[in-house]
Design goal:
2 domains; 33% helix
């Protein structure tokens, strides 16, 4: 028996929701798991990841212990479309897939709460793994080893224009430049912006999104690691049809939000940004509302 697991890309932080909020998007990584007699056989990813240190295998191994799966060997085939180290949750797809793969062999792949807690323990924070598990937009709070996650009902239909640069940015490097302390003023601003963002999405108050996506915790610092970041953000801010923009996860992908009926949004954004995003990939995405799926073959 084989288990096929599909996990959506995610876009975390959404500006002010650092390590708290995220959403699932319609690009995916797929993983096929098969129990074998002995050893580890990993295919479909770069050779340096085809060993015991592979993140998907490590998550599978930990999940197997948690759910009581006994095995002597496993084959994992990794395929997908989520760019690596671009701020679109590629590592979260690996972690969630590994856990779900193990749980599926025990007929427990729909135990999403338990899968969330284990995925958060491995990842260290729930902002990416929660939407990968539940779909849609989520906000999460960690209380000791438990994660409380709620889905945000978004009133309007939006599209997410991902501006994906041709260079990578590791989460470790992106976190290393963040300050260890912030002012009370900046803390209050971030709390108010996240509250406005969530309320605006629920109530369909599009006018609140540009302000709601503003951040004072990480984007002003991480922006210096991304070529043309501040110029790109300024141009997106001045586009009246762009509802808001933010740094996706740890970066370097920048996400712009437009209305679903804005059919020329991608073309307009590409023309407006011009040479600022030369060599970048521009993709229009939708919300994935399902989260991961698991099927038996």
């Amino acid at each position: 028996m084989k288990v096929r697991v599909r996990v959506p890309a995610t876009s975390a932080n959404l500006g002010p929701g650092f390590d708290v909020s995220g959403l699932a998007l319609t690009i995916y990584n797929e993983f096929i798991f098969e129990l074998i007699e002995e050893g580890i056989d990993i295919t479909g990813c770069p050779e340096q990841f085809c060993n015991e240190d592979n993140m998907t295998y490590q998550a599978f191994r930990m999940a197997a212990k948690r759910c009581g799966l006994e095995y002597t060997g496993v084959r994992i085939d990794c395929q997908g479309d989520v760019p690596y180290t671009r701020g679109l949750g590629s590592s979260s797809t690996c972690i969630v897939a590994g856990i779900v793969g193990a749980y599926a062999f025990m007929d427990r792949c729909e135990e999403r709460k338990e899968i969330l807690n284990l995925a958060t323990m491995i990842e260290g924070h729930p902002d990416n793994v929660a939407p990968a598990i539940y779909g849609g937009m989520t906000v999460s709070v960690m209380e000791e080893e438990e994660v409380v996650t709620l889905s945000i009902p978004i009133k309007h239909d939006y599209r997410f224009v991902a501006l994906i640069p041709p260079f990578t940015l590791s989460t470790e490097k992106s976190r290393s430049i963040l300050p260890t302390e912030i002012s009370r003023k900046d803390a209050i601003k971030n709390v108010s912006h996240l509250a406005l963002l969530v309320a605006s999405l629920i109530n369909g108050f599009d006018e609140g999104l540009k302000t709601g996506f503003k951040d004072h915790l990480h984007q002003p610092y991480r922006g210096h690691l991304i070529e043309n970041y501040f110029d790109i953000m300024a141009e997106l801010k001045n586009d009246n049809d762009v509802l808001g923009a933010y740094l996706s996860g740890a970066g370097p992908t920048i996400m712009a939000v437009i209305r679903a009926e804005d059919k020329m949004g991608v073309v307009r954004i590409k023309e407006r940004l011009g040479t600022l995003i030369e060599g970048w990939e521009v993709r229009k995405l939708e919300l994935d509302m399902r989260g991961y799926t698991a099927d038996y073959e």
